[in-house]
Write a structure and sequence with these properties.
Blueprint lengths: L7 H6 L1 H6 L11 H16 L4 H26 L9 H10 L7 H17 L4 H7 L2 H26 L1
Helix pairs in contact: 3-5, 3-6, 4-5, 4-8, 5-6, 5-8, 6-8, 7-8
Amino acid sequence: MKPMPVSPGTVFRDPVHFLAFGFGSGLSPVAPGTFGTLAAIPLYWALSGLTAPIYALVALAVTVAGVWICGRSSARLGVHDHPGIVWDEIAGYLITMTLAPKGWPWMLAGFALFRFFDILKPQPIRWLDRNLDGGLGIMLDDALAGVFAFAALQLVAGLR
């Protein structure tokens, strides 16, 4: 059963929904996860000047905070992992881009790799997606997709 759409007013009036819905990007009626990942690109760009340890701490903080943000938003909506909840995509993309080479081609490659793993959901990502509930369940499969995409991006970067 498809969840009910969430109104822009609900998202923009509530800070928890605003974050969970990726600053409004999750309101997209088609491919909200893709739009959530797109919303992560300017955030990554703003953070890309940080040192690697500080960037990694920020990505970790975004991920840990996402457990609460996504869990709370999901509970308020009464729908586990509503498609509009895309904070997990933002965190997954930030994980993907840890230690990434600088430049637009790498940002786009990270985007493509993260979306690939997030959509395909190879094991154990698929198992996590289907078997964990709450905010941890919402976040963990995308965090692991980010780790897979990180590994693939680092492999490609190492081949250049």
